Amino acid sequence: MKKRNHISIRAGFLFALPAAIYMLIFVGYPMIQNFILSFKNVDVYTFSDTAKQSFVGLANYTELFSGEEAILSTAIANTLIFTVISIFFQFFIGFGLALLFSKKFKGSSFFRGVTMISWLLPVTVAGLLFKFMFASKGGIINQLFMSLHLIDAPLEWLLDPKLAMAAIVVANIWIGIPFNMMLLITGLTTIPEEIYESSKLDGANKFQTLFQITIPMIRPAIMSVLTLGFVYTFKVFDLVWVMTKGGPVNSTELVSTYAYKLSFEQFQFSKGAAAANILFLILFVVGIFYIKLINDEEEVM
Amino acid sequence: MKKRMVSVLLCLAMAAGMMAGCSGGGDSKGSSDKEGTTGGKESVVIWDYFETDAQKNMMQDMIDGFNESQDKYEASHVYVPFADYEKQLTLGMASGELPDLVILDGCGMASFIEMDLFGDVSAADIKWDEYMEGPMSSTMADGKHYGIPFATNCTALFYNKDIFDAAKMDYPDENTTWEDFREMAKALTKDGVTGFGNAATGTDEGTFQCLQWLYTAGGDYQNIKGGMDAYKLMQEMVAEGSWSKDCVNWTQSDANNNFVAGNLAMQQNGPWQIPGIEKDAPELNYGVTVLPKKDADSGQATSILGGENMGAVKQDNMDGAIAFMEYYDQTDVMIECMKQYGSFPPKTEAAQDSYWTDDPIQKAFIQQLDTSIPRGPSASWPAYSDAIQTGFQEVMTSAKTPEKASEDTQAAVDKVKASEK
Questions:
Q1: Model confidence over B201-240: pLDDT tens digits?
Q2: Which chain A residues have a beta carbon less than 8 Å from that of B17?
Q3: Domain count, chain A
Q4: Which domains does chain B have, with CATH numbers?
Q5: Residues B401, B404, B405, B406: is their CA dihedral positive or negative?
Q6: Best of B397, B400, B414 to mutate (most A CBs within 10 Å, chain A)
Q7: Measured between alpha carbons, how far is B345 from B372 in angstroms, rounded to an integer?
């Protein structure tokens, strides 16, 4: 008995080995390298000469945060605003559509497929489309608003700092809705039909069914959607890079675009790595929260 | 069981998302066979970012000419998109997948020399003393040559003659001052036309066009406060509507498209736009002159030198790259290439070819080249550029007053200066 247990533990390790090796090589190694890089002083002057590279401790991090108008602080605030507003709308619109498309009606699966298009489209393409749509001269959004008499003069969508943020948020919401919808639909299909039937017999109305049966039953799916959505949105890069490149005057600068600029435009490799690590640390905390959530759910089940 | 399905689906979605997040960076351009030979000849691989047909034809003609001129090397070129260019070079240095010769934006060369991408070619048989000083300085560091200037140009003032004629106004010329220029732009701003526009996007492309205003006002890239009058002029003209506010998102092509479409009475732009204008809008009645000077007593306005350099990638055997540069060093080869390319040859004598001096538009650029200066050169130029362009954007969007913006930009520039080694 004891021996058998021993073997099964060994077999368990054996099975886990490929995954562990994969993680070490493709995730662990670059991550550790990136951390090491962020504690060094690698920039355009020291890149080629390893003798000049030295460890500078947390200097890169403190420098990124120093000063009243540190771009990184702005970038973190921007990223948070961007993420929270995006998720809020993505989730509620996605949830509404999920409830709609989980009903069987004529053409429901067709339209469900059609909604996926915005998620299947490469983000760069979506970003370019929105850039054209938000153009202050000749953009379709200004045309539409003008013809509806919502505005008198064309709005400078991508030029005004506040409106530029609104524009990228709208674009991101449009892209993210199908992802929310699909995961929630999958969650909805896990609810057995009998529960709805019996609650109907007990005389529950539509609202009671929604709030007391549907939502509690798919709570794990909802939590997953929210945490995963947070992670995706927080590290978004291509959309913003295509639409505004972080401008005007850093008003749509996200942590990801700032890290890219530091590394590949200004060749401040160590500082870029430090900014990327801050992004990583924030998401790491969210990730732990997510894993804990999954484990708790499994215990309940 | 269904629960497990959900989690599997989630994991897949997450993995897919991570892949999507990572893709795009890793695809390095295949040119690792630089030591390879084709048909007994050594290959010379060149990277460029040329997009227009005229530029591509020029590149092909130049390569064909080189391949026919000797039988030891076989040159070929690889296109890398401009937006990814410096990133690909940086990644190439890490992975070792690099060409033999790189054609790159002149102002970026100092950074890459510092990062040890280029090798010393001072010993090559090249007539160094025939080159213009500004472009040449951008290929050098510590007195050593790392390549040669490939093309040189600068921006000047384009004006739409029809719009000026309709308003019965005189065209701008070399005597036009900032005050005259401002009044012209103001008078021409009506009926959907904006007086003036340039490229002020938040990248080095914007710095390239905006920085000259700062120099003309008396500042330089390290002395922002000295050029505060430029900030004032920009903010006031944008507020009047005579300098298009859209500029903060405009690239040089955007500015040119608006000029060609008749939305701008005047634009700041470079000679590389001329082939495109001739092709797309042959009926456009326009002229070019030097940029407006500060006031009647001051000399001709400064412009910023643009253009490309050729850099020889450091490796054990650089003979192929050197042979190619020696081929391009021939004045007649250079002139032919630059006629197709829409820029000026970086040799003083070559730029005096009648092709340019007999054409009133090209002549204006040659005149402007006299008072053009390079960006930097500094290995920290990208950081300078970022700080400087933020200042221009703050002024043009009225996010800050000229005084506050110049103070803050000066502080940002000082910080970059302190980090220089």
A1: 888 889 999 999 999 999 999 999 999 999 999 999 999 9
A2: 228, 231-232
A3: 1
A4: 33-152+307-373 (3.40.190.10), 154-304+380-419 (3.40.190.10)
A5: positive
A6: B397
A7: 14
